[in-house]
Write a structure and sequence with these properties.
CATH architecture: 2-Layer Sandwich
Structural class: alpha+beta
Strand content: 15-25%
Number of helices: 3
Number of domains: 1
Number of strands: 5
Radius of gyration: 13 Å
Low-confidence stretches: none
CATH class: Alpha Beta
Mean pLDDT: 97
Length: 119
Amino acid sequence: MDMRVSPHFARGEFACRCGCGFAEAAPALIYVLECVRERFGRAVTINSGCRCETHNRAVGGTDGSCHLRGLAADITVRGVEPALVADYCESLVLERGGVGRYAGFTHVDVRGARARWSG
């Protein structure tokens, strides 16, 4: 059974896709994702959460990726444009996190410093 880490998310949703078992998402990240879920009233899909170093390299992640520390998630919200999700994420993380804007998803992280980019 997959352990719930919040009302709408289970630990396994954050798990590294290589199957290594790394699935320790930061509480601050989980809070941000719960806020996104509440704001849009729709399920948030975590396309990429935690990543081990091997998997991060395999998917072309950066050496210092926040995914390596359970601080980041690449997300989609069904029926909501990624730009709208990114706008809302920016209002949540402010100067304490990163938001990456991509055509098909939004990256959000809680790195502790401001970062913004488009991919």
